[in-house]
């Protein structure tokens, strides 16, 4: 791992910037490849992640890994996986605006250090926070946009897919797989239907 990314992780692991530090077991920074062209960003660690200190290692994570594999992406080699905030909100509640604000510099630094070309953002909270936009995820998903010079594909959070397991066409699982397939194509150099204002990279 690069020294600057190691420095980032070491600093992040000591963070006390918000009250979530009081009850956490672990700061949950990342898993996957530190030089991946694809960064997957979820919302926050849950109980399994807090216990093990790694993101997406519970049921949602297993589903994410399965979906990545289904499009030919290796969870450890092809993606760097992290969350918007690095400590578990008690009871898995949604992070507060103050917690999101306190933790945002860590994510911004993480994106700079890993320098991915593509961000695959999971769920409404992560999408709304990163893109600063209130459009529902059901309308944003499936369309490429551009953010700070990177391609962004928003989609559903795997926990939503666990609650909606049908694989029928038009259902969340099928839509998620379509979004992930677009990501795979983009990694292969094909990004179609970019919906951004390219004057604001
Ligand atoms: S959630 Fe983020 S800002 Fe809050 S203590 Fe954890 S790492 Fe620090």
Helix content: 40-55%
CATH class: Alpha Beta
The 3D shape can be described as globular
CATH superfamily: Uracil-DNA glycosylase-like domain
Strand-residue fraction? Answer: 5-15%
What is the level-2 CATH architecture name? 3-Layer(aba) Sandwich
The assigned structural class equals alpha/beta
N-C termini distance? 28 Å
Q: Work out the number of β strands.
A: 6
By CATH, the topology is Uracil-DNA Glycosylase, subunit E
Largest sheet: 6 strands, mixed
Number of helices: 8
Q: List the ions, cofactors and other small molecules found in this model.
A: iron/sulfur cluster
Gyration radius, to the nearest Å? 16 Å
Order of strands, main sheet, comes to 1-3-2-4-6-5
Contiguous low-pLDDT stretches (5 residues minimum) are 196-201
Overall domain count = 1
Protein architecture, described:
It is built from eight helices and six strands. The protein is α/β, with parallel strands linked by helices and about 200 residues long. The chain has a single domain, classed as 3-Layer(aba) Sandwich (Uracil-DNA Glycosylase, subunit E). β5 and β6 (about 150-155) form a beta hairpin. The longest helix has 18 residues, at about 95-115. The two termini are about 30 Å apart. The relative contact order is 0.15. Mean pLDDT is about 95; it is low at about 195-200. Bound molecules: iron/sulfur cluster.
Properties at a glance:
single chain; 201 residues; alpha/beta; Uracil-DNA Glycosylase, subunit E; six-stranded mixed beta sheet; 8 helices; 6 strands; globular; disordered C terminus; binds iron/sulfur cluster
